[in-house]
Amino acid sequence: LDHIAKADVQVHAFLELTADAAMQAAQRVDNAIAAGTFDQLGPLAGVPVAFKDNMNLVGTHTTCSSHMLENYVSPYTATCVQRIIDAGGLPLGKLNMDEFAFGSTTESSAFGPTHNPWDLGRVPGGSSGGSAAAVAAGMACVTLGSDTGGSIRQPASFCGIVGVKPTYGMVSRYGVVAFGSSLDQVGPFARSVEDAAAAMDALCGHDPLDCTSQDVKADFRAACQQGIEGMRVGIVRSFMDAKGLSPEVRERVNEAAAKLEAAGATIVEVDLPHIDAAISAYYVLGPCEAFSNLARFDSVRYGYCEEGHKDLGGQYEASRAHGFGEEAKRRIMLGSYLLSAGVYEQYYYPAQQVRTLITQDYRNAYGQCDVILAPTAPATAFKFGEIADPATMYLSDVFTISINIAGNGGMSVPCGLGAQSGMPIGVQLIAPQFKDENMFRAAMALEA
Ligand code: GLN
């Protein structure tokens, strides 16, 4: 807590601290040590943890970094948060993010951006930038983020830590404010692969409160000990040849492939023929789902309400005009347009067809390999304001988005610093659906 008080003045990862709850949880761990029952506590006993601010924790604000929810206090706790606390985590508080998770830099937070601890003049990535920066700056050992198109993996890469987006359905979304319900998945950030595995062991498992939650549970800590002898690692040629991929990132991915080969894996080339359409499909499907989900923030049921208007229409309009920031408005307008009669048939429907094709592409590729190795992001962390145009920003998700579209597991593992930029670079491991252990096994070999 002392370290946060000092370091977070510059980094600005935290939006709210729950120091009392953390101290009480620490006391329970102390008591267990004194009573000789520490071994009965969960895999995160005594580990300082914190949560992205789109996750409910009873009694705390859950703002989604938006003025719309600035004064909203959680009446209940999200399943993912509860599981981390039940596993023994010491809850430190809530973390900054792009507003409603729209973005790749944390610059769209209504409460000011988070800074990259490696270079305060650069972004930590986003949308879970606060969650990544908190771990990178040593303010928490495990944090949770959410990933709809890359929001865990890209900030993990930018901040030099491990970030995991599990297969869709592995972690409950109950109590997490929805962005794109068919794409959103919660996952951990940590400094090491094994720490992330311990968090995954606590997080995964069926939740009757989320109808997409699956009854699958893997032992990720055990998977970390398995090695990769005989594992087939796929490389996607079109990813490696992508125009926007910076040479220093390509270099690190090639190095990672060599490292996996040296540890007993075989490298195979795989093809994802429809992958070029992933960004377009995502920026149709994502805004459509966001538009539907954000309709609940109407100033009546939730959040900011501007009173004094003649009629309800005026109240809705003024509250939403002032409650939402620019990027949230852009997504809402895009979604409402794309779902309107006549336009739906031209965009939403074909985007769903593309989604099926991309999902099949991955299934076919996994006939030849057990895990795919790819870049996480095209380049290292950018400077504040460097990318001002939203369409260019959207392109930076090119290596992460298709994994959410197909529902696979993906994780980013730090692989050293860029030769030119001197900033951290992560490589991505992509697993077949519900075979997330595979990416942990490969991640361990990369970390070694
Ligand atoms: N950058 C992507 C977007 O803005 C992904 C965000 C996310 O995963 N939440 O939609």
TrEMBL record:
Active site: K52 (charge relay system), S127 (charge relay system), S151 (acyl-ester intermediate)
The keyword ATP-binding belongs to this UniProt entry's keyword annotation: yes
Any GO CC annotation of this UniProt entry: glutamyl-tRNA(Gln) amidotransferase complex
Domain Amidase, residue spans: 1-438
Enzyme Commission numbers on file: 6.3.5.7
Keywords: ATP-binding, Ligase, Nucleotide-binding, Protein biosynthesis, Transferase
GO function terms (MF aspect): ATP binding; glutaminyl-tRNA synthase (glutamine-hydrolyzing) activity; transferase activity
Xref: Gene3D superfamilies: Amidase signature (AS) domain
InterPro entries: Amidase, Amidase_CS, Amidase_dom, AS_sf, GatA
Gene Ontology BP annotations: translation
Keyword Cytoplasm found: no
Superkingdom assignment: Bacteria
SUPFAM superfamilies, sorted: Amidase signature (AS) enzymes
HAMAP family for the chain: GatA
UniProt subunit comment: Heterotrimer of A, B and C subunits.
Entry's family note: Belongs to the amidase family. GatA subfamily.
Cited NCBIfam families: gatA
Purpose of the protein: Allows the formation of correctly charged Gln-tRNA(Gln) through the transamidation of misacylated Glu-tRNA(Gln) in organisms which lack glutaminyl-tRNA synthetase. The reaction takes place in the presence of glutamine and ATP through an activated gamma-phospho-Glu-tRNA(Gln).
Protein name: Glutamyl-tRNA(Gln) amidotransferase subunit A
Gene: gatA
